[in-house]
């Protein structure tokens, strides 16, 4: 299968592409970088007309990080454009071709559900409120329009944990300095997932013709911020345990704190579980042991 990956040089893409190659697929990567770090056997293009072959499937991962910068008006627009505008451009291009892709896998995020308390959220749960929820809704709508007649899967990712990128290096930093902490009262839910399971979920969706629509990609066992702290203390020697006050987080990162850090969601991977998907890291302790063993 010939697969186009956007965001292929990012945290998830750099792990997904080798997995696709190992499964015998041909991979093209759409990138804005003039000289990206290249993998053998992968075609890198900066424009869609530069593609050398017909594309059978699109995996759309591109998007500026929600936690990359303070949410200024300018950065909010960048987050929207990098997701919504790019997705629309992909759709316009492929719908003008003779043989458009038959499969479209589009990343999204559990931010779709907005800040929640203790409600268990599945793929049928309604959208929430806030900027992140609105962004996810716009992105998913753009993907629905762009996919045309292709089988569309919308993969809502939880907080992706692994070495080398994503949220984990920042989350682990205080623990590596001997300080265990949690955010606010520590009761907010963290719906996490190991990057290896994200890669496996995309590959699973790619080869599952009946798996279309929304798919939550989170580990089966969400944890609270305090539980995450406890699990981290099992893999890091800490001397002090203190909370990170909510007001301090707001002062440090602004609006992002209320949507991504002080609040959370308890999201369940109902459709993956019912489809028979097996997580390599269903529990946080297993994921942390793996991450720390590969980072040392």
Automatic annotation (TrEMBL):
Source organism of this protein record: Congregibacter variabilis
InterPro entries linked: DUF1731 (IPR013549), Epimerase_deHydtase (IPR001509), NAD(P)-bd_dom_sf (IPR036291), SDR39U1 (IPR010099)
NAD-dependent epimerase/dehydratase domain sequence ranges: 3-216
Family label: Belongs to the NAD(P)-dependent epimerase/dehydratase family. SDR39U1 subfamily.
Pfam assignment, any one: DUF1731
Domain of life: Bacteria
Domain DUF1731 span(s) in chain numbering: 244-291
Signal peptide: none
Protein name: TIGR01777 family oxidoreductase
């Amino acid at each position: 299968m010939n697969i186009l990956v956007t965001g292929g040089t990012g945290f998830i893409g750099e792990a997904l592409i080798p997995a696709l190659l190992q499964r015998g697929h041909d991979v093209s990567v759409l990138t804005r970088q003039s000289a990206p770090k290249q993998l053998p056997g992968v075609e890198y293009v900066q424009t869609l007309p530069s593609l050398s072959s017909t594309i059978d499937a699109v995996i759309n991962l591109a998007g500026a990080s929600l936690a990359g910068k303070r949410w200024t008006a300018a950065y909010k627009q960048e987050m929207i454009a990098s997701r919504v505008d790019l997705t629309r451009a992909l759709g316009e291009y492929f719908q003008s071709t003779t043989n458009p892709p038959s499969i479209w896998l589009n990343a999204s995020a559990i931010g779709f559900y907005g800040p929640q308390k203790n409600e268990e959220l599945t793929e049928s749960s309604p959208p929430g409120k806030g900027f992140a929820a609105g962004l996810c809704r716009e992105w998913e709508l753009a993907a629905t329009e762009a996919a045309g007649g292709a089988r569309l899967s919308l993969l809502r990712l939880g907080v992706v944990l692994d070495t080398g990128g994503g949220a984990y290096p920042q989350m682990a930093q205080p623990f590596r300095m001997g300080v265990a902490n949690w955010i606010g009262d520590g009761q907010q839910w963290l719906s996490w997932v190991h990057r290896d399971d994200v890669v496996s979920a995309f590959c699973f969706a790619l080869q599952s013709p009946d798996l279309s629509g929304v798919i939550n990609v989170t580990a089966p066992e969400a944890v609270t911020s305090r539980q995450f702290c406890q699990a981290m203390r099992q893999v890091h020697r800490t001397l002090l345990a203190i909370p990170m006050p909510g007001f301090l987080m707001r002062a440090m990162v602004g609006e992002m704190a209320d949507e991504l850090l002080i609040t959370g969601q308890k999201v369940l991977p109902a459709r993956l579980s019912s489809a028979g998907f097996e997580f390599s890291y269903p529990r946080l302790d297993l994921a942390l042991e793996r991450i720390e063993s590969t980072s040392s």
